[in-house]
Write a structure and sequence with these properties.
Elements (H helix, E strand, L loop, with lengths): L16 H21 L3 H17 L10 H19 L21 H16 L3 H12 L4 H8 L3 H17 L1 H6 L1
Helix pairs in contact: 1-2, 1-3, 2-3, 5-7, 6-7
Length: about 180
């Protein structure tokens, strides 16, 4: 039988027992406050731990222990503010503007016109093919899921979708819009 001893033997006997009882009583509320200050739960835990460390170090200087929540919240906010002020900014001034990578962004109006043409072409498909195309490509269902939902075989889905895609490729309005 092996026994384990804590790495930090003084951790089990706090110098300030009132601090330990405060953290046990108010820890959940303070954790929610820390979570509201950060986007990441792990960062919130680190933030709270840092603020509680600062509070612990100042414990004997805190005169009114009824206002501890306010003190810890202020430590949370100040610590978080210090963190984002210290973040690195990877911007450097230069004499020439760098060239943009890739092709220019597509015109949103053209993209919308293409989407509209696609929907009109899909609506011109027979009902069964339209249902299969919508389920496969707009609802992102597998061939098996589509077959089960429509009560047909997987082969039927494959052949119907293949024929539907062929009709969409030959659609004159889509060819013109693209």
């Amino acid at each position: 039988m092996t026994t384990t001893t804590p790495v930090c033997t003084s951790a089990s006997t706090a110098v300030y027992p009132s601090f330990a009882s405060y953290v046990r009583a108010r820890g959940q509320v303070l954790q929610r406050t820390a979570r509201s200050l950060t986007a990441n739960p792990c960062d919130a835990e680190d933030l709270l731990q840092t603020a509680l460390t600062k509070t612990y170090l100042a414990w004997d200087r805190i005169e009114d222990h009824r206002a501890l929540d306010g003190y810890v919240r202020r430590a949370l906010v100040n610590t978080r503010t210090s963190q984002w002020r210290k973040r690195k900014v990877e911007e450097f001034p230069c004499e020439e503007l760098p060239e943009r990578d890739g092709a220019p962004a597509a015109d949103p109006a053209e993209q919308q016109a293409l989407r509209d043409a696609m929907w009109r072409a899909v609506h011109r498909l027979p009902d069964r093919q339209r249902a299969m195309v919508v389920l496969r490509y707009y609802e992102d269902m597998t061939e098996v899921q589509t077959a089960e939902l429509l009560g047909v075989s997987v082969g039927t889905v494959k052949s119907a979708v293949s024929r539907a895609l062929g009709k969409l490729r030959e659609d004159p309005e889509l060819a013109q819009a693209a």
